[in-house]
Amino acid sequence: MLPFLVFTDKSRPDDETRKFIRSHVMLGKNRRKAPPPTSPEKRVGHASPLYSVSGTVKSQGSRTGARLAIPAKVGSDLSTIQFADDVDPGMVATVIRFSSIAKRTLFPLSRYILFKRREENWVEPLAFDSLYLHAIIFSTHQYFESIRGGTNFPNPRTSIHLQKTLRLLRNRLSSDNEQARLSPSTATVVMTLAAHAHFIGDPASANHHLLGLQKIVQLRGGITSFSDNTKLAVELLRCDLGIALDAGSTPVFIGEASRVSRGVTEPLVLENELSMDAYLSVMLLQHIDDVLIDIWQVMARFCFLINRADISKEQISTELYMESMCSVMYRLMASEYVVGSTSEAIRLGLLAFSSTVFLQWKGLGRPYKYLQGRYMSTLVNLNQSDFPSYLLLWLFMVGAISVLGTDEVQLIVSWLPPKGTSNLPASWEKMKHILSGYMWIHAIHDQAGEKVFRSVFV
């Protein structure tokens, strides 16, 4: 969701960081001087921005304020660069330094996806959009603080940036500048606030921000209006889905996703006899919904393409990624079956599995409470005789690496066949072979899967 993690020491950037910074400082060359600093703001509540946005987008531009002059020649010292507001350069350096670490943690598939202008789209607004600047500084430092073991609530240093973010957002949304109100950077800020409110346990504010975000997207003409910033479109959907899976709510972009979703457009690739047997075992389940069969094919094909990309070192298009995510996750969220039924077990298995592929909130310590509870109830009430043993094994392993905690995994172990039976693989390699027959992305799932295998089966 949020592509930023940070570190709080005050040391100078390392060589890799300095190289990264130098590659971006020329993006704002010859920009006009910054407006004077704003007056100190008053303390405001988290839900204070009002999403009374109106109008339609007249252009795709996102630069809502004056661009700043960035020197043509600078060294590694960020103090020589003018940002959109008067901020501590060290805090901005922190954002830049650890963005790549967060990308690997929160978006492990990013190396397989071709995002156009990804770096420019998130770096450039730091120089001309003060609202975006404060929101990114706040969210970066706050998420690192929470991951490091601190509180989810802002400390005095970061709360200043939160207060500025809320005040500037409220001013922007009430202004007559239509292009600024509906800009990509404004959407990014609202998404950041929605995620933060959710993480600190404020569902009312999270929903408030999500509805505001939905209105911005609608007035722009839909999620596809971010065609020049597809990474942002993907992040908006990931944020929406993550909150819905945790809270058990309906995603606000479920209508938008239906216009992006295509279902099966190309034949499923079955690499070997095991894959064929696994696919048929799902197809032939009693009372299985046809929609789930279609979703299974979309997800299985996506896994095949990512595994192939990992070997060939190629990338898939952003459009294919977003279509697959919408075709799978939003359609699964729109469906629901009786707890313990065949269709509900497959739906939840696909939902849990796809969350590890498209979302990765578990890396932030979020257990997807709604999905976790629903998954446990379904496995416990499942009629095992309706399922092939290997499919049951896949459902267990998917739950263990995605939504179930250690305690839940131990409770479900008794649900599996006894150790030493012919139904259980004797080694991790055999287990991995079985899981791959259904669907499995080695680059994402192997490490977690092997850990579960050795703790449960060995």
Automatic annotation (TrEMBL):
Start and end residues of each stretch annotated as Disordered: 26-47
Protein name: Transcription factor domain-containing protein
